[in-house]
Amino acid sequence: MNTPSALRGAPWPGAPAGTAAPAAAGARDAAAAPAPGGTGTVAFEGVGKVYPSSAGAVAALQDISLEIPAGSIFGIIGRSGAGKSSLLRTINRLEQPTSGRVLVDGADIGRFTEGELVALRRRIGMIFQHFNLLSAKTVHDNVALPLRVAGTPRAEIVRRVAELLALVGLQDKQHAYPARLSGGQKQRVGIARALATGPEILLCDEATSALDPETTQSILALLRDINRRLGITIILITHEMSVIREIADRVLVLEQGRIAEQGEVWQVFGAPRHEATRALLAPLQHGLPDDLQERLAPEPPAAGPYRRVLRLSYTGADGLEPDFARIAQALQSPVRLLHGGVDRLRGHAQGRLLLSVPGSAALPDLATLAQGPQAIAHSIEVIGHVAGADHSA
Length: 393
Hints:
By secondary structure, the chain is of the alpha/beta class.
């Protein structure tokens, strides 16, 4: 797919005088990482947000400080009421912080005039959970709306809309109305509309929550492609850890309006420190199968053969990955894989394996097998015992 020239060769409509055009896709792709402070950088400095209510003031955000690098895909996750939407909406000043500052490319947007805010919002696209399309307008007209508001000439609108629809794979739907589109197609229209003014930042407010899993994957793939080709900073909020795992470079976990933890996705997923993060990750973990759970006992049986069940965990750090030959050699015993799995996240192996070894085997000190260059896992523990020597354990 070629990057449409309308998206990479000229400033957005209505941009302030002297604004530089977005970098060409090839130049963006050539850089391994965006330069600090580059176009599309967002920073929060001690941001707080308090809402009045009949029961008293409610603190939605408290002392939020972090930086989102230009050109990155940044995920914000948290349970309902954690403050995700409030934080996202401070970036285009749909919400004004009660305290602290929000900086876009180093500029304090809290000080912007109305005219400067209009220009800012043309630099920041937004897509929504429920699409927010105008039902009485065609696909073409929905995408063209921001351009018409910006006073873009008609010929330029026609050209730009055609290129945007080609980018999102809907070039044959320009005359269709939203009622005739699937959920995924509606969201693609929403993405095209959000890109109409050539933004440097794209905000995604639960953009896949209303979609089925297959459609979600296609929308995430489209967003990754847009980020790679155009170098746009993408900031998304979601309650789905699977979405963060699929697309984001870095993640912020919010809990009751505060930062619970933040970091590279593979680090946060591999070794979550906060209870809120562990709770959000729980649906992605490989739990014990019911049949094994029923048979597992904390102590060995009084008589007869049995097998110890071990759990080996991998966080993604140090390049450590499962090596069954090394595992069997280190445990000095034949091993059986019972359950679990290891995923690769940004090149790092993460997951848990449940193994069993004969109860008659004398295990070495497990703590030493999770340390140093000879480690076989990042943590190893005996989680129980199963009677018998059958192949199910």
